[in-house]
Amino acid sequence: MATSTIVSNTENVRFSPPALDPADKTRSRDNLTTHSNTLQLLKYLALDQKGKVMAEYVWIDAEGGVRSKTKTLSKAVTSADELPEWNFDGSSTGQAPGDNSDVYIRPVAIFPDPFRKGDNILVLCETWDSDGTPNKFNHRHEAAKLMETHADQHFWFGLEQEYTLLGSDGWPYGWPKGGFPGPQGPYYCGVGTGKVYCRDIVEAHYKACLYAGINISGINAEVMPAQWEYQVGPCEGIQMGDHLWMSRFLLHRVAEEFGAQISFHPKPIPGDWNGAGLHTNVSNDATRAEGGIKAIEAAMKKLEARHVEHIAVYGEGNEARLTGRHETGSIDKFSYGVADRGGSIRIPRQCAKDGKGYFEDRRPASNADPYQVTGIIVETLCGGV
């Protein structure tokens, strides 16, 4: 079983929601802690744990969301191998029937906890059924086997996670209720009031990822207002999916403290707006070597031959996004080109100039499972098609 060693980080990060302005009606108050209650919470968070450690077990549910619950450990740990297997009620998460509801969670990677800090940890888990087989929603298991089989090729991935910030009413922040903001243009990488929204949540998530040892490499505001992107990677092999899933957990958890919702829907608002993707940057030893552009061109033929199979695991609702408009290729046709954001695959201009490097698969939707995405890419490129 693949494991990850805990990443140490001594940076002191606190998440204290701002004091409420009674006149501010732009953000949901449903889950937002008041300033007074936050101060009380901080007092309790500072209490001595008497050598005990809180481990937040995190797993992926039937809907591609994240769930978690906490276990008390008797001492600090440095590896997922030291942690016990646990279980949960799978009938309440859509992962098991009520008459055989126990689903087991097996730790595979651990990260420092940016909320509780100290020796407390976040624990990423795989889900397993009582008969000893992977749960049907456990896509990590097969991906890990593929990565291990082809480890000698040293696949590197970088994922660009787009998402939209919504209020409690399900409407994007900064959008007039029941209406629309001005046309796209000033929002991408925007700065200033009326151009970007919820930067506080985005910055808090960025710092939480850094504290937790997530290999987050950057953030930016996206083309549609209230939409943002962060990038994770480069990561090798199965670590890509591990880091991306834990970054999603942290995003939901941070947004919870601000009373916001996170949407990974690939087309959250129908109409003349950009959708949301999980652009996937890929390279291996062959593409990074001198003359690697030939390996990239060979990869295009293999990817084209399995376009339908890739689309099948590249996210739900992706047909609303991959229309050939709004910087996407058509869902029905494979295409690629240098610096072409309207294709299925973009080869960066610098890579074409250097004659080596990586390519960007622009087809995956923002809600796609990174284990399935990276797994099928390795399977296709190593399958001899």
From TrEMBL:
Polar residues bias (residue ranges): 1-13
Catalytic activity: L-glutamate + NH4(+) + ATP = L-glutamine + ADP + phosphate + H(+)
Recorded superkingdom: Eukaryota
Subunit structure: Homooctamer.
Protein source organism: Talaromyces stipitatus (strain ATCC 10500 / CBS 375.48 / QM 6759 / NRRL 1006) (Penicillium stipitatum)
Single GO biological process annotation from the record: ammonia assimilation cycle
Coiled-coil positions: none
Phylogenetic classification of the source organism: Eukaryota, Fungi, Dikarya, Ascomycota, Pezizomycotina
PROSITE patterns given in the database record: GLNA_1, GLNA_ATP, GS_BETA_GRASP, GS_CATALYTIC
Residue numbers spanned by region Disordered: 1-32
Domain called GS catalytic: residue spans: 139-385
Pfam families for this protein: Gln-synt_C, Gln-synt_N
ATP-binding in keyword set: yes
Protein's name according to its UniProt entry: Glutamine synthetase
Domain GS beta-grasp: 53-132
EC supergroup of this enzyme: ligase
This enzyme's EC code(s): 6.3.1.2
